[in-house]
């Protein structure tokens, strides 16, 4: 047991006790490279603060879902970094450097949501179109099955009446009409089994009309999330001081 604990300590020691510096936890990305980074000179901070335009939608449409997912988290970290800089500037009673960066990041995130929403709506339309085709195919097969079952019932009734007449007349051999009806009944039963085999997957797939998938019920919007009207989220109310009247 002591040997296992010693091996675990040897494996954990380089991560927990880094001799060159503190361990990297990932939270450094929220302030590394910004104005709050004390390890960078002012000239480097000003050069890093210069940003281009927001991501255009025509370039975002060409990216896959995984690329958009990665880009979303990159923009989310950049947004948190800029929000920290804005809060620090507000505490210092100064103006934030290059405040248009936050607007560009938010616009890029909004365009990513728009692209993903339109993709989901397009997939929903394709799913509805395919489901409609399957439903029409099922209705045609169900109509054939209904007509075939009605024909089978008529043949069974004819055969039953013919056999009853033969029993009353005490005939040992069945008539040619009865043999033909029995052959037609066997053919109809084989067709009925084939129709049931074709209808089984269609019925299972079209059952989603009665219980729709939650992915196709969501309302897509460019501005998702709840709207909060707290004072700390509104700069107008946050900067306004209360006036006490005596």
UniProtKB/TrEMBL annotation:
InterPro entries: MRP-L47_sf, Ribosomal_uL29_mit
Any one Gene Ontology molecular-function term assigned to this protein's record: structural constituent of ribosome
Superkingdom per UniProt: Eukaryota
Gene Ontology cellular component list: mitochondrial large ribosomal subunit
Keyword Mitochondrion: yes
Subcellular localization(s) per the UniProt record: Mitochondrion
Signal peptide (residue range): none
GO terms of biological process kind: mitochondrial translation
Record key words, sorted: Mitochondrion, Ribonucleoprotein, Ribosomal protein
Pfam family of the protein (one): MRP-L47
Family: Belongs to the universal ribosomal protein uL29 family.
UniProt xrefs under PANTHER family: LARGE RIBOSOMAL SUBUNIT PROTEIN UL29M, RIBOSOMAL PROTEIN L47, MITOCHONDRIAL-RELATED
Protein name per the record: Large ribosomal subunit protein uL29m
Record organism: Cyclospora cayetanensis
């Amino acid at each position: 047991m002591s040997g296992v604990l010693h091996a675990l300590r040897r494996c954990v020691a380089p991560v927990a006790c880094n001799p060159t510096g503190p361990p990297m936890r990932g939270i450094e990305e929220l302030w590394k490279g910004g104005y709050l980074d004390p390890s960078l000179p002012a000239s480097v901070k000003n050069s890093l603060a210069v940003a281009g335009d927001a991501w255009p939608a025509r370039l975002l449409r060409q990216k896959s879902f995984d690329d958009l997912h990665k880009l979303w988290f990159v923009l989310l970290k950049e947004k948190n970094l800029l929000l920290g800089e804005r809060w620090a500037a507000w505490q210092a009673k100064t103006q934030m450097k290059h405040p248009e960066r936050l607007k560009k990041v938010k616009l890029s995130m909004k365009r990513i949501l728009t692209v993903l929403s339109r993709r989901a709506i397009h997939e929903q339309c394709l799913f509805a179109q395919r489901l409609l085709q399957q439903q029409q195919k099922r209705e045609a097969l169900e109509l054939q099955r209904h007509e075939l079952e009605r024909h089978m019932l008529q043949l069974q009734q004819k055969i039953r009446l013919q056999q009853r007449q033969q029993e009353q007349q005490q005939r040992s051999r069945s008539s040619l009409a009865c043999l033909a009806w029995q052959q037609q009944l066997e053919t109809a039963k084989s067709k009925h089994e084939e129709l049931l085999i074709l209808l089984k997957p269609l019925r299972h797939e079209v059952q989603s009309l009665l219980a729709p998938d939650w992915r196709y019920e969501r309302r897509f919007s460019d501005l998702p999330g709840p709207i909060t009207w707290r004072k700390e989220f509104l700069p107008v109310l946050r900067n306004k001081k209360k006036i006490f009247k005596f």
